[in-house]
Amino acid sequence: SVVVCDAVEGIMTQTETVTRMSLEERVRPVLYINKIDRLIKELRLTPEKMQETLANVVSNFNDLIDTYAEEEYKEKWKVSIQDGSVTFGSAKDRWAINVDIMKKKGVTFKDVIDAYSDSGKVEDLVEKAPLADAVLGMVVKHHPPPHVAQKYRVPKIWKGDLESDIGKSILNCDDNGPIVMMIVNMTIDPAAGPVAIGRLFSGTIKDGQTINIIDTKREGRVQSVNFFMSNVREQVGELGAGNIPALLGLTEARAGQTIST
C-alpha cells in the first residue's frame, strides 16, 4: 500500500487507520509525504528544517508499524528515506522526489525551495522529477510481486484449506489453476455497462468464459477482459493470476463477492 500523509499535519487518525488495515492483511506499506509546498510557502522552512520535519514524520510512521505489524515484519517493513521507501512531493503541483530520484536527477531540497521562490521554476521541477516516476519507482522497488506476496498474505486473509488444490494454486499465484477472483469494486461504464474490478489470485480469465459468482450461486459470462491503464480501460482478451482485471458482462456481480470456475 502507498500511505499518504500531509507534510504539515503529519500522522493523523486516518493515517493510523489505513496503516493498521494494511498491516492486518500483511500488505507492506510505503510512505508518500504530500504537500511539501506547504512547508515552503506557509512555514518557510530552510532545507535543514525541512529535512528535520520529514524525519519526524517518518519516525512517527515507523512507530505505527512497530505498534501494528506482526513481530516478523516489524523491522523489515519500517520505511526509510535512505532506502527510498519514503517519497515526498506535491500532488497538486505534480512533482515528487525520493533518494533514488535525487541521486539520478541531482535534485536537492534547496532546488525544491528555489523552485517555489520563482513560480516558473515549479514546472521545471515537474519536468525533472514527475510525481508518477517517483511514486511508481518506489512501488516497484519495495513492493513484492504477487507470486511472492501471496505466499505470506494468503494464510492470513483466506480461511480455506491451504493444502487443497485450490489453496496451493492461490498460494503460488498459479496461472494454470482454477479461477479465484475477489471483486473489490463495481463501476458503470456509460457505453459498456457494469464493470467488475478485482484481484485475480489464481487462474487465467478470458473473454467469453463462463464463471460462477460464488455468493449468488449463479453463473455469469465474461463478455470481455480489460485492464485499466490509469483511467483508460484497455481490452486485453485474457489476464493471468496476480493481475487486477476489469470484467464486462457480469451484471449479477457485486463488490465483495468471489468469482471462480
UniProtKB/TrEMBL annotation:
<dbReference type="InterPro" id="IPR004161">
    <property type="entry name" value="EFTu-like_2"/>
</dbReference>
<dbReference type="GO" id="GO:0003746">
    <property type="term" value="F:translation elongation factor activity"/>
</dbReference>
<dbReference type="Pfam" id="PF03144">
    <property type="entry name" value="GTP_EFTU_D2"/>
</dbReference>
<dbReference type="InterPro" id="IPR027417">
    <property type="entry name" value="P-loop_NTPase"/>
</dbReference>
<dbReference type="GO" id="GO:0005525">
    <property type="term" value="F:GTP binding"/>
</dbReference>
<dbReference type="InterPro" id="IPR009000">
    <property type="entry name" value="Transl_B-barrel_sf"/>
</dbReference>
<feature type="domain" description="Tr-type G">
    <location>
        <begin position="1"/>
        <end position="121"/>
    </location>
</feature>
<dbReference type="GO" id="GO:0003924">
    <property type="term" value="F:GTPase activity"/>
</dbReference>
<dbReference type="InterPro" id="IPR000795">
    <property type="entry name" value="T_Tr_GTP-bd_dom"/>
</dbReference>
<dbReference type="GO" id="GO:0005829">
    <property type="term" value="C:cytosol"/>
</dbReference>
<dbReference type="Pfam" id="PF00009">
    <property type="entry name" value="GTP_EFTU"/>
</dbReference>
<dbReference type="GO" id="GO:1990904">
    <property type="term" value="C:ribonucleoprotein complex"/>
</dbReference>
<protein>
    <recommendedName>
        <fullName>Tr-type G domain-containing protein</fullName>
    </recommendedName>
</protein>
